[in-house]
Design brief:
With 144 residues, the chain is an all-alpha fold. It has 6 helices and no strands. Helix 1 runs antiparallel to helix 4, helix 1 runs antiparallel to helix 6 and helix 5 packs antiparallel against helix 6. The radius of gyration is 18 Å and the shape is elongated. It starts with a helix and ends with a helix.
């Protein structure tokens, strides 16, 4: 029996990942300005044309990866196996917690990105809690 909560969470995460990935691919500078402010965005772009090209290519590939993850989440949303859904949700919780830990231990030490780490860790924890809510819901459904 498939869970409608799993479908809802997957679709929500998919829309966010697809949108953010597309924005990172096509509107990199605007995403930097929106997320970090214009002063830091100008520093993140690079100083030489070669650096700018490398950074722009790297950000485009990151956006492509995020877009692919969104597409994967869209496909996974239609899986009806309860055991797979629980396994997938546990993996997503682990992934979001690992991202929050990475931001806490490494990203906060970067001079230019150091002031954004708390907001991003909070976002990672909220995303992990959405999957935890599904796990609690499925546990409650299983044992009621």
């Amino acid at each position: 029996m498939a869970s409608p909560v799993f479908f809802l969470i997957c679709m929500l995460h998919s829309v966010v990942a697809l949108t953010c990935g597309a924005m990172m691919i096509f509107y990199t500078n605007e995403v930097f300005v929106f997320g970090h402010g214009s002063e830091i965005a100008s520093k993140l772009v690079g100083s030489t044309p070669h650096d700018q090209l490398l950074i722009r290519t790297s950000d485009s590939f990151s956006g492509l990866l995020l877009f692919a993850i969104g597409f994967l989440l869209l496909m996974v949303a239609f899986v009806n196996d309860r055991e797979f859904q629980v396994f997938f949700a546990k993996g997503c919780v682990l992934l979001h917690v690992a991202m929050a830990m990475w931001r806490f231990y490494f990203e906060r030490k970067l001079e230019e990105l150091g002031h954004d780490w708390l907001r991003q860790v909070f976002g990672d924890i909220v995303l992990a809690l959405s999957w935890v809510s599904f796990l609690v819901y499925s546990w409650r459904e299983k044992y009621d």
